[in-house]
Amino acid sequence: MSRLIVVSNRVNPPPSPEQGDGESSVGGLAMALAAALREYSGIWFGWSGKTTEKFTGQLSMQRVDGVTTATVDLEEGDYQEYYNGYANKTLWPLFHYRVDLTAYDRSFGEGYDRVNKRFAETLRPLIEPDDVIWVHDYHLIPMARELRRMGVTNRIGFFLHIPWPAHQLVVTLPRHRPLVEAMFDYDLLGFQTEESLQAFEGYVLSEVSGSRTKGGELKAFGKTTRAAAFPIGIDADDFARIKDSPRASKVYDRMLAHSVFRKMVVGVDRLDYSKGLEERLIGFERFLHDNPGMRREVMLLQIAPLSRDEVEAYQDLRSRLDGLIGRINGAYAEMDFTPIRYVNRSYRRDELAGIYRAAKVGLVTPLRDGMNLVAKEYVASQDPEDPGVLILSRFAGAARQLKDALIINPNSPEEISDALSRSLAMDLPERKRRWEALFDNVQTRDVTAWRDDFVSALTSERPDQEEKPAARPLEAGERGAKALSSLAREIRA
Q: Which pLDDT score, from 0 to 100, does residue 1 have?
């Protein structure tokens, strides 16, 4: 394999130690992909995060910590229809089982297809014949289709970071069939869990009369592809290391001083309706109601950085959370005590490690989540001699791996309340036994293992190998070499 090309909606090169990292889960993923790109001398391609008056396809090339990135600006209309529209108002809610929030607008779908085509056209000159291409997440499902139409026959893999919904939900999406058909232009499809994999297979087998080949591949639309589950992990050793770093230790000490005489429960999530934030707060309220003798002994720290502020559903959620927290604090606070501390900002990974370590309970209650790396980060940050307890929603992909957590239904305030009571009363031997099993899984199935497993599967020979049809003869070697030579001069300059 000559090079690995990673394609994602946004490009997240690893930050320098001085910069820190604002998104805990993004940092570990960025570092794992960056390590692969350095190993294979690859390129990370995607949207710059900026908009321009007119799309030109002009690439901006940079080299950050040994990783070459290639980004392109989008038109404002592209941003609204592709990103705020189809990605965040259509696919995101649908794939998280929120049909009630799913917006179907023809312009959204047109913008989605248009941007994927523009991305493919911009990336095409950089692709050389032996490159392997790895496309990430729901923003870019049609990417392989567009590249195949341009004659690209390289190995292309796709990994879906969010859940794949049940067949009955997929068919509520207008033009669901072309979207799934586009996935068959990939050589390998990766899902977070067996549940998502089975849901995808169920759609293919029942909705479009697909079949499985003798080699275990899926066949439909006259094409074949491989599909498998690749549960993503974190950089567990890094989290275990940074929890004792100077900054993490300082944050840990601050948390202990702030929560003196109280046990801290922590939740860390983007402000998103899929994370079960309202249900978590109602469950905590139920705990306060059911345990009057413990009210002054427990506090909840909820960290929820704002996201997608331009989408109405997120604005509504923020308003509801503000009101709910005000109600709970108003009912249970005293002049020297507030049960809930609520923060709408991001923290560096080392700061989060200190916060996690200080928390006696990690409360992770998504209503639907592809994996949920916060649960794994909480485990990796614990003191082995005095670990906290993880309470985890059964609807997080991580629940399939982290079976020694207290698994709950986040829709039940009683289950959340009972799990909090059990966690806070749990003796040290049980806490250590549970944590050791959890950390073994987090450490063994880390983000590097996930990355290597996927790349290995993508580059291995397929059992029923079929050539992908080329729309026109390849000239990738010449164009790619010319483009990269020019861009290399730009980088050196």
A: 55
Q: Which residues neighbour 324 within 8 Å (Cβ) at sequence distance 6 or greater?
A: 278, 281, 282
Could you say which of 137, 369, 404, 446 is catalytic?
A: 369
The verdict on 124 and 39 lying in the same domain is yes
Q: What is the pLDDT of residues 81-135, one digit of tens each?
A: 999 999 999 999 999 999 999 999 999 999 999 999 999 999 999 999 999 999 9
Report the alpha-carbon distance of residue 54 to residue 73 in Å, rounded: 9
Distances (CA, A) of 482 to 152, 162, 397, 479: 17, 37, 44, 5
Could you tell me if 267 and 161 lie in one domain?
no
Q: Is 369 a catalytic residue?
A: yes
What is the C-alpha separation between 193 and 287, in angstroms, rounded? 31
Q: Are 66 and 38 in contact (CB under 8 A)?
A: yes
Of 400, 98, 97, 421, nearest to 283 (Cα)? 421
Total tally of structural domains belonging to the chain = 2
Q: What is the CATH number of the domain that holds 80?
A: 3.40.50.2000
Structural domain harbouring 107: 4-233+447-479
pTM exceeds cut of 0.70 = yes
Active site residue 289: no
Asked if 465 and 381 sit in the same domain, the reply is: no
Q: Is residue 491 part of a domain?
A: no
139 pLDDT above the threshold of 60: yes
Which residues is 98 bridged to in the sheet?
Answer: none
Q: How far is CA 33 from CA 37, 76, 134, 156, in A?
A: 6, 29, 10, 16
Clarify whether residues 183 and 280 are in a common domain.
no
Cβ–Cβ < 8 Å for 411, 401: no
Provide the edge-to-edge strand list for the sheet that holds 211-212.
60-64, 67-75, 43-52, 4-10, 132-136, 155-159, 188-191, 223-229, 218-220, 211-212
Residue 488 domain-assigned?
no
| Pair 210, 270 in one domain | no
Residues 305 and 319 in one domain: yes
In a domain, 493, yes or no: no
Per annotation, catalytic residue among 161, 238, 272, 350: 161
